[in-house]
Write a structure and sequence with these properties.
The protein is mostly helical and 70 residues long. Helices cover 47% and strands 0% of the residues. It has a domain of 46 residues. It contains four helices and no strands. The protein is globular.
Length: 70
């Protein structure tokens, strides 16, 4: 049976991503996003957080999706 691919997207909220896999917080920290404990993380998308922190959204998503699907 083939494993179902999980994919994070730009419009996914940080809180939603962390509910999917809490260990993604280490990747977020690596990109300077320490906002996973912030109440805004429940409403802010990955793209919004990346823009605020000057992070390349596509690069961050590549790393997150690689982690989620290994």
């Amino acid at each position: 049976m083939k494993k179902k691919k999980i994919e994070a997207t730009k419009d996914m909220q940080i809180g939603e991503l962390l509910r999917l896999n809490p260990n993604v917080k280490d990747i977020l920290i690596g990109f300077g996003l320490h906002c996973f404990g912030c109440p805004m993380s429940q409403m802010e998308t990955l793209e919004e957080a990346a823009m605020v922190h000057g992070v390349d959204t596509d690069l961050m998503l590549d790393k997150i999706n690689e982690f989620l699907n290994k």
